[in-house]
Amino acid sequence: MTVESALKLLGVAEGASFDDILRAKSAVLASCKDDQDAVAQVEAAYDMLLMQSLSQRRAGKVVDNSIRYADVKPVKSAGSGTVPQWMQATMKNAPVTFEVPSSSSLGIQSCVYGALMVFTYASGSSTSLPSTYTSADVPGFILATGFGASLYFLTKKNMNLGKAALITVGGLAVGATVGSAVENWLQVDVVPFLGVHSPAVVVSEFILFSQLLVSLFVR
């Protein structure tokens, strides 16, 4: 049997995909299942076309990636096709992306936020600092400084100020939520933890850490 006769018998065009060949085979077999000679011809045509496709694939001439092995249909990877189209489009056109920071950015921003976090911890745990550095206004001042630092680092990535502000506010909200949950669990105002007795200090630490992550990895 020639390739041309196999194509004619199954009613497919040259270069047909595995699925097309399989569907054509099933359709022809359904119409001649009682004729053993015809069934044998269909099976031979099917094998002929698949062997030709595999040969072309090895030679790099087959564009259809669905043809892998003669008797094995391609299997979809787990989870493929389960994401709605609108979600795929949203993810593709998301207004923010994530990136790996450079070593210099990581070092500079870690130092800035690390210093703010150390100052925050000291203001809430140390009894030797002057009252100016341990007043109730200090955490707010530190958070404002962290907010400004986040805006600065984000705008350095060629991000407009409005977008940078929204991302920074988002980071602040996430940090405040996590920090509040941790503080409710620790209750440092009842039982001090590592010398910290102010709930505002605990929440501030998480906000600063969240802003560090946002300014480093979000673009």
Automatic annotation (TrEMBL):
The keyword Transmembrane helix applies. It comes from the Eukaryota. InterPro entries: CPP1-like (IPR021788). GO terms for cellular component: chloroplast membrane. Pfam families: CPP1-like (PF11833). The chain crosses the membrane at residues 106-124, 136-154, 161-182, 194-218. The keyword Transmembrane helix applies. Keywords: Membrane, Transmembrane, Transmembrane helix. PANTHER family: OS03G0137300 PROTEIN, PTHR33372. This is Uncharacterized protein. It comes from Oryza brachyantha (malo sina).
